[in-house]
Write a structure and sequence with these properties.
With 397 residues, this protein is an alpha/beta fold. The protein contains 14 helices and 13 strands. It has a 7-stranded parallel β-sheet with strand order 3-2-1-4-5-6-11, sandwiched between helices. Strands 7-10 form a two-stranded parallel sheet. It is globular and about 55 Å long.
């Protein structure tokens, strides 16, 4: 593939330490703290899904702003729990003693939630825990609704009973379905989701409005657009492309890569989440994306460029539950959240590659050395991984 991202722009000619400092370091995520009469800046924040991709970065962002954080995650096997535990270790190493408490538990456990809310008196809830993925939800819609809808109902009910903390919910751009309104704008009815996953997320948006209307709960739904970056889930496209290159896993390239996605770097997403966590907005639905769609084939070519290796993806037709184009209007996010994405796709791919080398490839090399006991954590858990064959894959060099 020829990468249009590389044809017109040079890749950043900076070292890893400099990139980490620019993309992941404290200056990016630490705006001036403003003390507020509603206590949002000083009260603890509950982050659900805290061991996951976006959740672990959100914990870091909030702690860097001086907020005490309680993280909740059940460490389920949708993908390897070892990967989630590794995320938590990365967070602890980065924070070096910041006020972060981790609780292993499930949002479907109402007694646990009531105890947490009673003990900590949260000022904000950042609800990222969910069963994720459009395609997997087609096969198991029951679990998706049990976790995403009933689990969220439990959180909303606990919030209602314990001080009505500001509630920030991670929704999805998939709620727009095959809308003809381009770019995607929040005034769209978004009433034709194509799979159980986006339907469950849209249902929660509506449930949030009910709690706002009936109980005065501040509820902000953030519709994320194609998030990628360090600590990404193994079932996400960027991670899967790296796995294809280095572990020869079979990965489909839907519609020959002729699909546009509004690729948004995880720390840009998290900056929007952290801003929302400290702002009571009543009831709002807000897009969080980059606002610059990029062809999937160009994104893949960008990964090939940074690794210096070619992919061997399998062309497949686009699935019925998928869409060919996503494109976020971020005007509302700019207005209400002071949101401004900073990381280009080129820089984001390179940062993701740096992390993948450190977190995945180095572990695989250790596992292949005599006496090595580590196993790569890139494989998924209960959902499996195409081409894994039931044994640990061997790294291609």
């Amino acid at each position: 593939m020829v990468c249009s991202l590389c044809a017109t722009h040079a890749w950043p000619d900076v070292g890893r330490a400099a990139r980490d400092r620019n993309l992941i370091g404290k200056p990016y995520l630490s705006p001036p703290k403003v003390l507020r009469s509603d206590g949002l800046v000083t009260a603890p924040v509950l982050v659900t899904g805290a061991a996951g991709f976006i959740g672990s970065h959100t914990v870091e962002a909030l702690c860097r702003r001086g907020l005490p954080v309680v993280g909740l995650d059940n460490l389920n096997d949708y993908y390897a729990p070892e990967r989630k535990r590794a995320n938590l270790e990365e967070v602890r190493a980065a924070l070096q003693g910041a006020p972060f408490t981790f609780v292993e538990g499930d949002i479907r456990d109402r007694a646990l939630l009531n105890n947490l809310f009673s003990e900590h008196r949260f000022g904000s809830v950042v609800h990222l825990a969910a069963m994720a993925g459009v395609r997997a939800s087609v096969d198991d819609p029951w679990t998706y609704y049990d976790v995403n809808l009933t689990g969220t109902l439990n959180l909303l009910a606990a919030a209602k009973e314990h001080g009505k903390p500001n509630f920030v919910f991670a929704s999805t751009s998939s709620a727009y379905g095959r809308t003809e309104t381009i770019p995607f704008v929040e005034t769209d009815t978004a009433d034709r989701p194509l799979a159980p996953y986006p339907a469950s997320k849209r249902s929660v948006e509506l449930l949030g409005h009910s709690f706002h209307h009936l109980h005065g709960l501040d509820f902000t739904a953030l519709r994320f657009f194609t998030v990628y970056g360090p600590r990404g889930r193994p079932d996400m496209m960027a991670y899967k492309v790296f796995d294809n290159i280095f572990f020869d896993r079979e990965v489909p390239l839907y519609n020959g890569g002729n699909m546009h996605r509004d690729w948004t770097f995880v720390l840009d997403i998290v900056a929007g989440v952290a801003n929302a966590a400290t702002r009571r907005l009543g009831y709002e639905v807000i897009n969080i994306g980059r606002g610059e769609p990029v062809l999937l084939s160009d994104f893949v070519a960008g990964i090939e460029a940074v690794t210096g290796k070619k992919t061997s993806l399998t062309n497949k037709p686009m699935m019925d539950a998928d869409v060919s184009f996503t494109y976020a209007s971020i005007d509302k996010a700019r207005q209400l959240l002071d949101y401004e994405p900073k990381v280009s796709v080129k820089e984001g791919i390179e940062s993701h590659w740096d992390w993948y080398q450190d977190a995945v490839l180095s572990q695989a090399r250790e596992a292949q050395t005599p006496g090595g006991s580590a196993s790569p954590t890139s494989s998924t858990g209960s959902t499996g991984s195409a081409g894994s064959g039931g044994s640990e894959p061997q790294q291609r060099v």
